[in-house]
Write a structure and sequence with these properties.
Elements: H1 2-42, H2 51-71, H3 73-106, H4 108-114, E1 117-118, E2 125-126, E3 141-143, E4 150-152
Antiparallel strand pairs: 1-2, 3-4
Helix pairs in contact: 1-2
Bound molecules: zinc ion (2 copies).
Residues 144, 146-147, 149, 158, 160-161, 163 line the site of one zinc ion.
Amino acid sequence: MKEGKQRHNLTKTGLRIIGILLALGGLACTIIGSIDLFTAISEGEGLPKRFFLLMIGLPMLTIGVAMLIFGFRREIGTYLKDETMPVAIEAGKEFAPAAAALAAAANPAAQNAAAENVCPKCGAKNPAALHFCEMCGTPLTKTCPACGKSVRADAAFCGHCGKKV
Ligand SMILES: [Zn+2]
Ligand SMILES: [Zn+2]
């Protein structure tokens, strides 16, 4: 297994080196060939002497880039997985409260419902999830005698079973 992996890495390193050489060589040939071609066209000559450079440069560049992509494939994949995902998650974390605030602002009824539990003693508004007033400690909930679930202290009927409390 280890030998195979080493050979695989060696193949990949070879791919990268040959890929870089091919891409650079192909790029150089393409540039020289292109300049020669355009010079020849603008001067009205036929095919330039170094036109063959363009003919071999372009395939070399293509093969070199393909080999580079193949050689760095895992790095590219790892990069995309490791670098892009946390960024997306971080961005999501930063946007989540903003989105929640936006949703609450767009829906005032939901906002009111969330802070609806008014203390029967001091009148402070408490989040509905709380069981005691944040300002004076008065119980905000009572236990329904019929079903045993927690209901608001000032509730006339149980919201879970509908019985009078
Ligand atoms: Zn209170
Ligand atoms: Zn009940």
